[in-house]
Amino acid sequence: MKLTELLKAIQPVQVIGSTEKDITGVNIDSRLVAAGHLFMAMRGTQTDGHAYIPTAIEQGAIAVLCEDMPEEPNPDITYIQVKDSENAVGKVATTFYGDPTSKMELVGVTGTNGKTTIATLLYNTFRYFGYKVGLISTVCNYIDDQPVPTEHTTPDPVTLNRLLGEMADSGCKYAFMEVSSHSIAQQRISGLKFAGGIFTNLTRDHLDYHKTVENYLKAKKKFFDDMPKSAFSLTNLDDKNGLVMTQNTRSRVYTYSLRSLSDFKGKVLESHFEGMLLDFNNHELAVRFIGKFNASNLLAVFGAAVLLGKKEEDVLVALSTLHPVTGRFDSIRSPKGITAIVDYAHTPDALVNVLNAIHDVLAGRGKVITVVGAGGNRDKGKRPIMAKESARLSDRVIITSDNPRFEEPQDIINDMLAGLDKDDLEKTISITDRKYAIKTACLLAQPGDVILVAGKGHENYQEIKGVKHHFDDKEVLKEIMN
């Protein structure tokens, strides 16, 4: 593609050099640059791409997009200076990959909890209807039925547009993606055209990055502020921030709720460990999911599918065929009648949701034993709160290691224990070794009890000192229970 074509989507401060060059690739990582590429220098949280401009040129870059011009420009290179490279990179990438989101319906899901479940269930629902569909999620990306491994909830702008381009080229009519607060703040989704957006909920998370809950909220809200007039915004009325999210949007606003009058109204009629009986807009349906939070997730899927033009009755049939997402309220039953649940819950609110769902089904007929940890090098403020909520809603708590990353596991455990009072501590033990912690929970459990292993869900590794070691909660539970 001619450089002049790529630049139509942005407004450069200045351009030095020819724009008639043929660009064979676009990159923000200098290591991936090859002959004929445009290198785009971005300021990241860890490194500044401007420092890698000389490396990119050595690798074969023939053009450079940057905020700061070099003191001695290379006469063979075209320099494009922009005011905001974060904003420009997404727009250039989407142009280079053929504006993929203009060729399919893209729906983004944002919020603290529920993003993976809603995006994945929408993907499965529309595949059930017979469409080719794309998915961009924390667990895995899919181009129809082809898995593409994932590193981040929302990839960088170049990777994201390349992936969406492959989806469009393979005939995907719909794509569903999780939209993280980081990706909104860092403008990774700049240039994408959304057909719709869904807001799930907002509770404390990622304050290591956003610093305040207000900044976190503003990042989520910006997604809806930027939504086009032609799109829909579907927001959760059961969250106090539901209507805050959509107050400045130009899009068509719709609501869903388990408690209030809304466009898509739901109710839990019955709940068992095998599933629930629900009422959505005065239609009954049986599903294989547990808990009010999952009823809310399914209601969002129902609403979005209807807003994308599907009949309510057809969507309900599709929902009744769906299975829970890997690592989200994933249950195993032992031969002795003990139920174990693996869940990704890694925020206080997510823990409360899962534990309340367990109590709704147990109804006092068994004890709850919770195995929980907290990730290293992340928001430390949530650690004592997670321990406190676990103790409040469990009969026994085992605090253990999650992904300690570059922190000492015992330091993380001590931060969690600091949130507990004398009564809480009497029913709490700490075991650093996660496998031994799970084994201890299994030894403590009696028939009819429920063990919750929280925090890692679908993850099959423990990240320690920069190295990922194989570890799968479900695998460990099956091995011990059998």
Automatic annotation (TrEMBL):
UDP-N-acetyl-alpha-D-muramoyl-L-alanyl-D-glutamate binds at S30, T153, T154, S180, Q186, R188. Meso-2,6-diaminopimelate binds at R378, D402, N403, P404, R405, G455, E459. Its main location: cytoplasm. GO terms for molecular function: ATP binding; magnesium ion binding; UDP-N-acetylmuramoylalanyl-D-glutamate-2,6-diaminopimelate ligase activity. Its EC number is 6.3.2.13. It catalyses: UDP-N-acetyl-alpha-D-muramoyl-L-alanyl-D-glutamate + meso-2,6-diaminopimelate + ATP = UDP-N-acetyl-alpha-D-muramoyl-L-alanyl-gamma-D-glutamyl-meso-2,6-diaminopimelate + ADP + phosphate + H(+). This is UDP-N-acetylmuramoyl-L-alanyl-D-glutamate--2,6-diaminopimelate ligase. Gene3D superfamilies: Mur ligase, C-terminal domain (3.90.190.20), Mur-like, catalytic domain (3.40.1190.10), MurE/MurF, N-terminal domain (3.40.1390.10). Its cofactor is Mg(2+). It holds the Pfam family Mur_ligase_M. Residues 23-97 form the Mur ligase N-terminal catalytic domain. Keywords: ATP-binding, Cell cycle, Cell division, Cell shape, Cell wall biogenesis/degradation, Cytoplasm, Ligase, Magnesium, Nucleotide-binding, Peptidoglycan synthesis. Belongs to the MurCDEF family. MurE subfamily. InterPro entries: Mur-like_cat_sf, Mur_ligase_C, Mur_ligase_C_dom_sf, Mur_ligase_cen, Mur_ligase_N, MurE/MurF_N, UDP-N-AcMur-Glu-dNH2Pim_ligase. It comes from the Bacteria. GO terms for cellular component: cytoplasm. Pathway: Cell wall biogenesis; peptidoglycan biosynthesis. Catalyzes the addition of meso-diaminopimelic acid to the nucleotide precursor UDP-N-acetylmuramoyl-L-alanyl-D-glutamate (UMAG) in the biosynthesis of bacterial cell-wall peptidoglycan. SUPFAM superfamilies: MurD-like peptide ligases, catalytic domain, MurD-like peptide ligases, peptide-binding domain, MurE/MurF N-terminal domain. Carboxylation is probably crucial for Mg(2+) binding and, consequently, for the gamma-phosphate positioning of ATP. One of its GO terms (biological process) is cell wall organization. Residues 327-457 form the Mur ligase C-terminal domain. A motif (Meso-diaminopimelate recognition motif) lies at residues 402-405.
